[in-house]
Design a protein that fits this description.
By secondary structure, the chain is an alpha/beta fold. It is built from eleven helices and twelve strands. It has three domains: 111 residues, Response regulator (Rossmann fold, 3-Layer(aba) Sandwich); 70 residues; 157 residues, Histidine kinase-like ATPase, C-terminal domain (Heat Shock Protein 90, 2-Layer Sandwich). The two termini are 57 Å apart.
Length: 380
């Protein structure tokens, strides 16, 4: 299936020709216009950058030796501008091999020597435009996929939420008295619906992060307080499995900069992170305990200050082969227990968005320790 629209397939490629010599510009322009390309010209590097930023071309033919800003500097600035789409750059040069290496290192895609030969010029132009079209098609397919999943998960939430509310009404007897058998069925339906709603929410969050559409609000967050809240919310789940949920939140925090585990972060996302890690520990533990430790140990002044949170369980553990791919999308361990394969991937997205790291240490049959390290908030 071709995902590109007919308008994008049929549009004429636009080529920017940059050279301080009017004769050279006229020659190249005449050759390319005869091949059906739209040509825009610039006589220096500054003008070229202005054109590129205002209306990015499909290809840039760039002379290396120009007064003021040379072709190398133009190439460097184009490649540093993250707002620009991918634009192939073909350097036109009479320089030696070392200078060509410099241009390619700056981000140019190809080069052609002066005096320019017609057939070689057209061949290199066609080659770079094929590269441009390939990259554009790949990016458009990726955007369409992300939009599809985002829209799908968003639209799925509405009927799931409605079904959840209706099931709650049924369980409360709002529509009439229910028998014990019906109550058991409604309870199973509500639990399954809630699990599905949770999966849809996680999927939606994952794609928001991956599409760069997740907006975070950073404020000082007291992890000691936040983890206490998460523990309170999950204690009934641990109690239902006769597991002890133990918090060790004092540690060295009160004696170190950023004492008490203060970090700069989005509180809602950090709440989601630790809820996921602690709930996972409960889910994959049948006997024993879950221990949550907050550590803010003194470190060298030359290193960034970190707050570490460890979530340790006495559960089934994770095989070494599974640990390597544990934080990837839709990856599940081989312990044959439920899970979407997205929770830990989302956890890593949240941690990395906070400039932190997440690791796991585990042994099959002996449990796991998930270790989150986040930059400590600056002392006031």
């Amino acid at each position: 299936m071709n995902y590109l629209s007919s308008s994008s397939q049929n549009k004429t490629d636009c080529i920017l020709v940059v050279d301080d010599s009017p004769d050279n510009v006229l020659l190249v322009q005449t050759i390319l216009e005869e091949e059906g390309y739209d040509i825009v010209t610039a006589e220096n590097g500054s003008s070229a950058l202005a054109i590129i930023e205002q209306s990015p071309p499909d290809l840039v033919l760039l002379d290396v030796m120009m007064p003021g800003m040379d072709g190398y500097e133009v190439t460097r600035r184009v490649r540093q501008n993250a707002k620009l789409p991918f634009i192939p750059i073909l350097l036109i040069t009479a320089y030696d091999q070392s200078s060509l290496v410099q241009g390619l290192d700056m981000g140019a895609d190809d080069f052609i020597r002066k005096p320019v030969e017609l057939d070689e010029l057209l061949a290199r132009v066609r080659s770079l435009l094929r590269l441009k079209h390939s990259v554009d098609e790949r990016d458009q397919i990726a955007r369409q996929r992300e939009d599809f999943v985002s829209r799908l998960t968003h639209d799925l939430r509405t009927p799931l939420v409605a079904a959840n509310q209706m099931l709650n009404l049924l369980q409360q007897g709002a529509l009439g008295e229910i028998t014990p058998q019906c109550a058991e069925v409604f309870s199973t339906m509500a639990r399954s619906n809630q699990n599905l709603l949770s999966m849809v929410n996680i999927l939606l969050e994952v794609y928001r992060y991956e599409a760069g559409r997740k907006n975070l609000n950073f404020f000082p967050v007291d992890l000691k307080q936040l983890i206490g809240e998460v523990s309170q919310e999950l204690t009934p789940l641990a109690d239902s499995k006769s597991l002890s949920l133990n918090l060790h939140l004092d540690g060295d925090g009160e004696k170190t900069p950023g004492g008490g585990g203060a970090v700069m972060g989005d509180r809602l996302e950090l709440h989601r992170l630790f809820t996921n890690l602690i709930a996972n520990a409960i889910q994959y533990t049948d006997t024993g305990s879950i221990d949550v430790r907050l550590v803010a140990k003194p470190i060298a002044k030359s290193e960034p200050r970190l707050v570490t949170v460890e979530v340790q369980d006495t559960g089934v553990g994770i095989a070494m082969d599974d640990q390597v791919k544990l934080f990837e999308r839709f990856r599940q361990a081989t312990h044959k227990r439920g899970g979407s394969g997205l929770g830990l991937h989302l956890s890593r997205q949240i941690v990395e968005a906070h400039q932190g790291t997440i690791d796991v240490i585990s042994e099959v049959g002996k449990g796991s320790v998930f270790i989150v390290r986040l930059p400590a908030a600056s002392a006031t």
